[in-house]
């Protein structure tokens, strides 16, 4: 339960000011109560926090300071009562090169650890196909034997882990459960994961044998394209060669 301390400054204010301060306190309490569904869902950023904007808006007709706009997170659940405001702020951040760079750096740092090779020295691609798709990783330098070995070892492990329903590595890299994962896990043998060597790297082919599994694979690959920023085509381009 959240405790809201009552402002001690009330006793030092002029006779008409306490009601105004009390009103702002009640508004803040209501916002915290409204945010509880998000907090229960694990979205801690939904609670009001952060510094007020440089210029506060005023409540129409009163001249009083309005509640400041609250920061958002792209992971905010749609059940959040402040979802629309959060999504608008997230959209604005998407146009902020510094914020985007920070997110990419954090993703790469997690990837270095979880995958066991340098993200800067390698290149990821995610291909969608009519029967599934593929995860591909290659080294940027043909002479980079150490990272080449690490890439192949990692993708062999990924093929085996995914087939066993273990998606902990992509969850660690992206700091969330990627879209499609739960359905891919539930699909079981309806998705075949096959490792293959590539010149300068390797790939895992994902072949789905039913529509639900295929949709899950495509959701997963589209998310990878977006989060890694690979620029790959998010639509089906070809049927895989078996």
Structure described in brief:
This protein is α+β, with helices and mostly antiparallel strands and 242 residues long. The protein has helices at residues 17-40, 83-94, 97-115, 145-163, 168-174, 181-187, 211-228, and strands at residues 122-129, 132-139, 191-198, 201-208.
Count helical runs: 7
Count all strands and give the number. 4
Mean pLDDT: 76
Query: What profile does the largest beta sheet have?
Result: 4 strands, antiparallel
Strand order of the largest sheet: 1-2-4-3
Give the percentage of residues in beta strands: 5-15%
Helical residue percent? 40-55%
Summing up helix and strand content along with how strands pair, one would put the structural category as: alpha+beta
* Cα separation of the termini: 57 Å
SSE order, one letter for each helix or strand: HHHEEHHHEEH
Tell me the overall shape: globular
Mind telling me the C-alpha Rg?
A: 24 Å
Uncertain stretches of 5 or more adjacent residues: 6-77
Number of domains: 2
Describe it.
The protein has 7 helices and 4 strands. It is α+β, with helices and mostly antiparallel strands and 242 residues long. It has a 4-stranded antiparallel β-sheet with strand order 1-2-4-3, covered by helices on one side. Helix 3 (97-115) packs antiparallel against helix 5 (168-174) and helix 6 (181-187) runs antiparallel to helix 7 (211-228).
